[in-house]
Amino acid sequence: MGLGLPAAIYTEVVTLLEDISSGGVVCDATVDGICVMPQACSSYTSFSSYTFLFNFTSSSANYMRIPLATFATNVKGSGGSAQCNIEITYLSPDNTQSSNVILGGMFFQEMFGVFTNDHSTDPVT
Q1: Region 97-110: what's the mean pLDDT?
Q2: Beta strands of 1-125 (E only): which ranges?
Q3: Rounded to whole angstroms, how far apart are CA atoms 61 and 40?
Q4: What's the confidence (pLDDT) of residue 80?
Q5: How many CA atoms lie within 13 A of 48 on its CB side?
């Protein structure tokens, strides 16, 4: 899964995708549905303008921006040409998680850890 969104936020994102694709986006507003845009993802230059801002505390200084393009993949369409799948899933209001935003595997594949190895090797501890 890419990104699971509650109904109200999902509707806003679909509106933004309609702007990006000039009305060419088709979204499946069922649980586990995705949005499909008719051309390759690289042809939508507005992707770089749209990000999700996640605020983790009450302080507005602690946040993270995630580009919409993180959840986009090129696939071959039925006619053989590339189309852009946006892996954004609608969370049903009946779902117990419907008020949450769920970051799925596509988000975590974009992350990596950076650390300094400061362990002692003599003696090995």
Answers
A1: 73
A2: 3-6, 26-27, 35-37, 51-55, 63-67, 72-76, 82-86, 88-91, 102-103
A3: 35
A4: 82
A5: 3
DSSP 8-state secondary structure symbol assigned to residue 121: B
Mind listing the pLDDT tens digit for each residue in 13-34?
899 899 888 888 999 988 778 9
Q: pLDDT tens across 27-56, in order?
A: 998 877 899 999 999 898 887 788 888 887
Closest residue by Cα to residue 21 from 51, 3, 47, 57: 47
Total residues found in the chain within this entry: 125
Nearest Cα neighbor of 71 from 84, 62, 61, 58 is: 84
Q: Which two tokens stand for residue 40?
A: 């390759």
Two structure tokens written together for 110? 């974009």
